[in-house]
Amino acid sequence: MLLPIPDTVRPEHRVRAMSVEQPLRKEPVAFDQLMEGLVRHAMKDRLDGEARRRLREVGVDVDRPLLSAYPLSALMGTLKICAEVRYPDLPREESRYQLGIKALEGFGSTSMGKALFGMARMWGARRMLSHMTRVLQTGVNHARARAQELPGGDVEVTVEVLPEYKAAIGPVPGLDPFFIRGIIAQLVEVCGASVPVTLLPMTDKTGHSFTYRVPLSLVPAATKPLVLTRVK
Q: Would you say 50 and 35 are in contact if contact means Cβ atoms under 8 Å apart?
């Protein structure tokens, strides 16, 4: 419970007291692992001088060591630039989808990505999708996912912005639905399931939540997870 600030307190002290009482707003960021997979691997040898200049304008300098984290605006700007540079002849939605595939491929070249891919191959697509939040949060801090198994064997995955970040993001989309569709498609491919991933009609007008259908009913029943034993 917040206590009232006495009128006898000087104005500058009142401002300081109020700022202490108000919780800090959580800011969405993209981590260096995602940015590395995107600009170092997915875009390898494709960033000319003009593309590098555009990236610097959104806050990403690929000619210097990557920062540990970037604001959401830098990530969204980078997605736009990279999709336009790598897939100039594709429609916007398809270019973002293809970039999501390539970004996850590139992420697999990082140390964290190698560990994630090893886990994916061991677990299989169905179990990996149930841990989709872990996958997302290796790249960003403001998203989560939940997977729901449908009666026929397919899986629906809903990806959404965490509530505590919505105030900072505001009315703009906090996620790119087509880019994430590519990430999910490539993830299940790594797990051994080559199936088309569909973005369902969007019902969230704020652009903070998206649902995907993954037709795992088309995939043969998974074998038992690989059990790793220590070599003696």
A: no
> Domain boundaries in the chain?
29-218
What the block records as the tokens of 183 is 């990430």
Q: Per-residue pLDDT tens for 208-231?
A: 999 999 999 998 764 433 333 333
End-to-end CA gap in the chain: 60
Per-position b or e across 190-219, b if 16+ CB within 10 A of its CB = bbebebebebeeeeeeebbbbbbbbbbeeb
DSSP code at position 165: G
Locate the DSSP E strands across the chain.
29-31, 69-71, 143-149, 155-161, 198-199, 209-214
Q: Which amino acid is at 86?
A: R
Note the CATH number of domain 29-218.
3.90.1520.10
Write down the pTM of the prediction: 0.83
Q: What span, in angstroms and rounded, lies between the C-alpha atoms of 209 and 191?
A: 24
